[in-house]
Each structure stands twice: as C-alpha cells, then as structure tokens.
C-alpha cells in the first residue's frame, strides 16, 4: 500500500498547506463583525469548475495510485512473470505528449484570441488523443496475437486492466474536448472557449503524467528504481 | 486578536446572483423528478436510502428470527441466512448511511448553511442521484437473480466470494453486487465533488471557514475522505470482477473446488483485504463525522449555549479524518501480519481515541449549565453521546491485537460495531430528521409519536445490543446461522437470543410509527414557522419555509458572526442569527475594502 500512502501524503500536504492559511487558530466567538474581520479566508476567485476538476483529478490520482499499490503487492508472488512491452507504446506515449502540447498551445491561443490557432490546436489535440487510443488497441492486439491473454498471467492482466482504465479516462476527456472542438469550429469566440480549453489542457497534462508513471510501472522500471533506492538505503 | 472590528460596523451589500446563473425548471418533470435543485435531490436521496434501508431492516428481523428460534422457519436456510446477512450489512453501511448523510443531509444542508443558492454543479448533482438510484436498482435486482444475492458477507472476501460454495458466488449475485458498488462509487464521486467545491467556493460573504457550522465541517471532511477512500473499493471491485468474469488471478489463489482444479493460480486474498479495509475503515468515519457535526449543532441549539471549544471541534474533525487512513489493518489482525505492523496499527487505532474523546468532552461541557430543552432532537443527541461512548469503549478493547484475536469472530464484535456504527449514527439521523423536518415541510413532526419512537428505539437498542456483548464474551461465534448442541455455550445464551429477537422486532415496529409520523405530519403537523427552534444558522433565515428555489430570495445573506451565538449576555433574544449585523453602529461605518470585499462568492456556472 506504499504507493497510495505516498499519494495520500502528497494530498494531505496540499490540504494542510491550504488549511494553514485559513486562520484555523482564530477565535470566531470573539470576532463578530463584517467580512473584513477575516481577510483572505473567503472563497477564492478560482472558477468553481477548475477547483472541481482539481478535486476530481485528485480522486483519479488516488485510483491509479491504488492500482499501482495492488500491482506492487501482487508482484512479489511466485507466479509473476513480467509482461512484454509492445514497442508501439513508445509511439503512443509520443502521441499523448503531442496532445498535451497541442492543448497547451490551444490555451495560449485562446488567451490571445487567435481563432485559427485555437481551432487547429484543439483539433490536433483531439486527433492525437484518438491516435493514442487506437495505438493502445493495437498494442492489445499485438499482445493477444503473441498469446498473452488477460487471464493467463497476472502481469498481463494488470497491463490490460490498467491501460483500459487509463483509456476510459481519455475517452471521458474526449467527450468534453469533442464538444469544445464543435463549438470552436462553429465559430464561437475564443474568449468564451477559454475556460473549457483550460480545463481540457489541465486534464490532459495530468493524464499524461499518470500515463508516464503507469508506463514506468508496467515496464518494470519503477520496480528497478525502487530496488536501487532500497540498496542505496541499506 | 488584532483584526476584531466593532459590531455591525459596515454593511456590505451582498453579492447578487443574476437570474442567468441559476437553472430554472420549466416543467413538472424538471421541477420534481429530474430536478437540479439540491433540496429536491436531497429528498430523493433520503427517500431512496430510507426505502432500501427498510429492506435491510426486514432482513435483520429474518436473521434474528433464525437466531432466536432456530429451525422454526423453513425458508431461512443457511444459504438464505448468509444472503440476508450480506445484504443487511452492505445496504446499511453504504446504501443507507453513506447515502443518507452525504447525499441526503449533505445536499439539503450544505447550500443552505453556507449561504449558497444551490450546489455549484447542479447538473452533475442530479446525475449523482440517478446513478445512485441505478446502483440501488441493480442491488435489488440481485434478490431476483437466479441463485439469489451474494452471501459472501458484506466484506466480500475472496476466494469464497466467487466460489460455488457461497450463495450467489457462481451465479449473477456477486456480479450484480460488484456492479452496483461500482455504480454507487461513480455516482458518489459526482455528488462528492459538488459538496467539496460548494463548501470551498459557494460560501456567501463573511462565511469564513471558522464560521461554518460544525455540521458543514463534518460533512465536508467526510466527503473529502470518501472521495479518497472509495477508489480503493472501486479498484477491489473491478479486480474481483475480472477474477470472476474472465478467470484472472488477482485475488484468487490456486484452488481445488468440488474436486476440480480452478483456473486461478497464485493470487493474493490478503491483497483484497488491504484494499477493502483501506476503504472500509475510513468508511466508519465517513458515517461518523457528519453525525459528529450534526450532533454538535443539535446540542448547542437545544441547550441554548455556544458549542464548547469550537476550534478544538474543527481540529478534531480534521485530525480524525487524517488518522482514519492509517488504521485499516486493525480489521485484519486475525488474517495474520508481522507483529510490528500489528503494533503500529494498534497504536494508531488507540491514538484516534484522543480527538474522539475531545469531541465527547466538548459535547458534555456544552451541556454543562446549559438551558437544556428536552426536545426530541435533543433526546436523540443525548442518546447518541451515550451510545457512542459505550460503543467506543469496546473499540478500545478490540483495537489491541491480543484482545481482538480471541474476540474477533464472536458476537462481541457484532455488538461493538452495531453500537458505534449502527445505533449511534442512526440516533443522529433521527435527531436530525426531527430537527430539520420543520424546515423541509413547514410543519413539526408529531410530538407524542416522536417521544414514543425515541424511547422505544433508545431503550430497545440497548436491550438488543447490551446482552450481545455477554453472548460474545461467552464465545458464541458470529456468522453462524445456528449454534446446535455446543458444549461451551450455556442455555442462558439461547434464552438471551430469544430475548434479543423479541426486542429487535419491537424496535423494528416502532420505526413504522416514525414512518407514519413522517407522512402524517406533512398535512397534520403543527405549523412550524421559519425558525421554530430559534436557531442561528442560515438555513433558518431563508425567504420562506420550505425554502424556495434559490433559497434566499433576491439577496444572499451576509454573515457577521459564528454559528453559536446563543444566550449572549445583553442581546435582546437568546440567539443572534449568523446574518444579524448586531447592535447599531457606534463609530460610524468603517472603511470598506480589503481583498475580502472584492472577492465574494463566485458566481456559479454549469458543469464544464
């Protein structure tokens, strides 16, 4: 359960840092009066949707941290055999990086009000994401063609399960990104698309980081890294 | 404190929310069925939770009938008993208590108490309820599936959960159970995002975190915990579904079943237990923290006294929330673990008693020299404190490895967790319903039916669960449908079991009085007015009762004080509402400005 505990420690550090600035030491029973008796502890100016997405991404992070925890727990048993990594995964990773970069460009374009750049960047982001999903499917077929099915070997089961979970999250994001694309290509002004573009970019960046971590775990580098750290410590 | 400003110094106009920002229903369907109004969603959540809770209540009667009078009822086979037990536990913990406290009370109280017009994402909030309803329907469907619902115990431990020896293990029962849980978690996550973000971003002017009523603190912290804990159950369910459906071996070891080698190989059942209890223990506090918060408000209001140690109460809630993530393995002492792990988890478990005890002391000190009104909500609140202390004390025994190992599989554990997690939160649920029903309907619940309901429930609960401790200490195992002729079990246990069964049936039927009261009082209850309990919090200061769509009329209230200004010396009444600016200004209006005045509550948009 180490992965989830490390993740929770991070979440609690953020929560603790935020709570520390909320004047939890104040004595509200002495402080009747108008709002400026409590400077800076009211609701922030952040848009609720951004905060909502942030909280949701913390939940997504917990979900994948738990999958990784389970992966490490299962790994120590005798029947574990590392799964082969299709080379296609490197290409897919590149696609997802491209999607993330494209959406960051879309955010810049939306802020500058450049309609054409925004449309292009959103479209590239969506297409590269679809390419990523297609690539993941091909990777599955590759594995299956070589005789690795989900039920045979726990490492392979984990590979199918974890990539499927990550893919489902990309599909969920694509629904929103698709809608944003339709709105952009129908000629909505960039100013009205700024928020949704920013949300998409934030989601994609986090899912990219999640994928990089998952890739490292599934390919076995994470375990090697942990081993090296352990040897250094002992 | 430096920045105390004199009473009622400057009146800052509240932020007005334009008509554009609030979703308005256009038809009967969108107003009452597919409603996006948190108050309607709250009632939908509560109604569904209570309905499925009644099913679980009936299941508990059937179990008690079997235990009290074994062999009398032909239809209660051992398989059926396990199915009743499983569904009773699962429904009560997740589909009733979690849904009722967070989906029901959370939805109703958060927007009203923080001074918001609605949740920040009303559409997602509506989806949350409908997915919850779907989860409940899938759960109910498993009763009608071939082979019946799963009988694996509410913890669903593999390998037995998906083997043919367990009822529903090879039929659709276990699959429906897992799918229902997955749906519940998805639905809950949608609602949970709303509760968290509304508390953070939907607060009205002047509603700082340290002015929030403790109810909101309890529900907020519980929601944050649930958002982080439910994914563990999600992961466990998905992986078990894989094991069951396609024969993978996440949890399933190599097993010979009915003389045949199963396709599984090498999986780890302990891994499931870790994942399950990583959710399961926070779940206890997901139910308890809203109860703690609500009971604090009930006690303060009905004792006409400010809550003792508000800051400590807030810190204790946050502290319990954080600690509850590092105690999960105390449910697994009997599964075997490294002694140092056992030591670590026993220590954290006992440490959690510290913030919990702080809360109990503060409740008692709030009552000390208070003007206690023995209203029905107050009676239930007092019953909660007593029950929670009783149940918590046996928790101190069970938290130690050496005591837990012999007691773990006995009725003592059943008595412990029913006291602390069953009876105690249910007392708060009842207290809260009697307290807020006048706001939800505009009428009071009938007093005499309420008092009857309270005394039968309170005394009856003790008649059920106190003897159970004794039964457990004698060594009667739990989970057994029938004891048979067992040498170490004295005849007094059988007499007690009959007694407990009669008490359980009586308490169960008393709940029908409560249900009748709920419906009867909608029409025939006494008119309540806007603020029958003369309470300070914002939900009692709305534009009408029940609060209209948008809650607060044209202008949102501005908050000038904390939620517990009861019996303030020199005040004209014995309470000062949170949005009361206080006595007239002495020094002229203070300068306006500062970052706070420009901030204001964010206007709400739809889901992105």
Automatic annotation (TrEMBL), chain A:
InterPro entries linked: Cyt_c/ubiquinol_Oxase_su3 (IPR024791), Cyt_c_oxidase-like_su3 (IPR000298), Cyt_c_oxidase_su3-like_sf (IPR035973), Cyt_c_oxidase_su3_a-hlx (IPR013833)
Top-level taxonomic group: Bacteria
Membrane topology type: Multi-pass membrane protein
Pfam families membership: COX3
Subcellular location per the Swiss-Prot or TrEMBL entry: Cell membrane; Membrane
Keywords: Membrane, Transmembrane, Transmembrane helix
SUPFAM superfamilies xrefs: Cytochrome c oxidase subunit III-like
Every Heme-copper oxidase subunit III family profile domain range: 1-223
Principal subcellular localisation of the protein: membrane
TM annotation in the entry: 6-21, 51-72, 87-108, 120-138, 158-178, 199-223
Keyword set includes Transferase: no
Family named by the database record: Belongs to the cytochrome c oxidase subunit 3 family.
PANTHER family registered for this protein in UniProt: CYTOCHROME C OXIDASE (PTHR11403:SF10), CYTOCHROME C OXIDASE SUBUNIT III (PTHR11403)
UniProt-recorded name of the protein: Cytochrome c oxidase subunit 3
Phylogenetic placement of the source organism: Bacteria, Pseudomonadati, Pseudomonadota, Alphaproteobacteria, Hyphomicrobiales
